[in-house]
Amino acid sequence: MKTICLTIFTLIATTLIPQRPACAEKPNVLFLIADDLNTALSGFGHKQCKTPNLDRLAQRGVKFENMHCQYPVCGASRASIMSGLYPYSNLTLGNEGTLRGSMPNVVTLSQTFRNNGYYAGRVSKIYHMRIPSEIIAGTAESDDPFSWDEAINVKALEQTAPGELTNWSPKDRGSQTFTGVVASDGDSEHADGMAADRAIEILDQVKDDPFFLAVGFVRPHVPLVAPKKYFDQYNRNAMETPVVPENDLDDVPGIIRDYKRNSTTYGVTPELHQGLLQAYYASVSYMDAQVGRVLDALEEKGLAENTIVVFTSDHGYLLGHHHKFQKQHLFEEATRVPFIISVPWLNDQHGRGTTKITELVDLYPTLAELAELTAPDTLQGTSLKPLLVDTESPTWTKEQAFTISRSGGESIRTANWRFTQWGFGEKGLELYDLKNDPDEFTNQAKNPEHASVVKMLLAQLIAKRDAAGFKQNRTAIVGKPGKGKPKK
Ligand SMILES: [Ca+2]
């Protein structure tokens, strides 16, 4: 029966209106998510970082080149992905608390699959997990037990692993310090290799039943631990640091100007900066290799043809862009994430990319539709399926991606503009003309020539944030911790 189905499936998959054959088994889902990974993927046009396995996945799927997170910090972004709700609705507005704590009756993405007879499993970091302390302890304190039949934590040495330890910032910033290890042992001695090993074991155990397997990779979150062979792929002295005008931050609102700024917070010298980039890219390539091992296992076990594979990151990451580092910013490098979906039977657009505006909150309704499951009618995203069938689909009408951050920061990203306000509109505005200034160097918010654009985008931002739950939950949102003056 399986052979006949696969034959019919192959025939149908080559027609113009691809669909799964009625006799096919329920499709599986393999959800892969990296941590603090920006779009430094060779397949997304990055000139130095090498990600051959993710590039291979992109060739077997569709690449979303304008995908934005809803909150550029681990806990809030992941809660948004798993709930299918904007942070203003699920009230997980940072790394504090849990999704279930805010919404006791939420039906999460994997829970919807569970409720429909699927096995749902988690390996390593899916909901918020403090890195490296929870990897060292082997815990997942913010996990949601309702989401899984089985949850596996990995336990690794992180920065105390054997090898050459370096710190690329002279300042100690606790868990966010730019520490890394050129590790002297192998892939499976570290967190992401362990996660791949456990994921491959689970695939073997559950291959005969429909599954939703979520696998979290913790690199390239610091500490940047990777076996030496991945560091050896990059010549430290050839690493290209971002080119940023000296005065770039002069026109940024004061409330956010010095936040995570190199000169005030990190003290990364040009030489350390190159070392940091080498370590970040080495960690990305190490993570990429573990993705490759899981994808290979999927093929070897005969599961590839009936498994939807998703790869993304929880948010982007600044690596010296705008003279700043890390996350919680509302610049492009922090909001934009790599995103690939491979749906074997929707193969007409495989290898293509789409620049349509999309949001991570769109993932939940997408997977529900692809698996033909009924999702909660409260979901706030839109199924991406039209873009999997046609990357230029005229039926895709989303015009703004909405991202919030601390200090009352709210940003919309449209095809041509980024518009951001701080302090819920009381602490300054930013406007970037992405067609002429894609690096967001010149804040045009006070330029009289763009007054009508500011007015238009402000109206769009207010409408978008109210639809996202701000109006309804205003008191709870404004009173949440992390909304005060940002720490430097
Ligand atoms: Ca600027």
TrEMBL record:
Q: Which InterPro entries match?
A: Alkaline_phosphatase_core_sf (IPR017850), IDS (IPR035874), Sulfatase_N (IPR000917)
- GO terms for cellular component: cytoplasm
**What SUPFAM superfamilies does the record point to?**
Alkaline phosphatase-like
Q: What is its EC number?
A: 3.1.6.1
- Record keywords: Calcium, Hydrolase, Metal-binding, Signal
- The species this protein was found in: Rubripirellula tenax
The residue stretches assigned to a coiled coil in this entry are none
Q: Respond yes or no to whether keyword Hydrolase is given for this record.
A: yes
* Presence of the UniProt keyword Cell membrane in the record: no
For the protein in the UniProt heading, the enzyme class is hydrolase
Q: What is this protein called?
A: Arylsulfatase
Which terms in the Gene Ontology molecular function aspect does this entry carry? arylsulfatase activity; iduronate-2-sulfatase activity; metal ion binding
The cofactor named in the record is:
Ca(2+)
What region holds the Sulfatase N-terminal domain?
27-371
Q: Which PANTHER family match?
A: IDURONATE 2-SULFATASE (PTHR45953)
User: Per the similarity annotation, which family is this?
Assistant: Belongs to the sulfatase family.
**Gene3D superfamilies the UniProt entry points to:** Alkaline Phosphatase, subunit A (3.40.720.10)
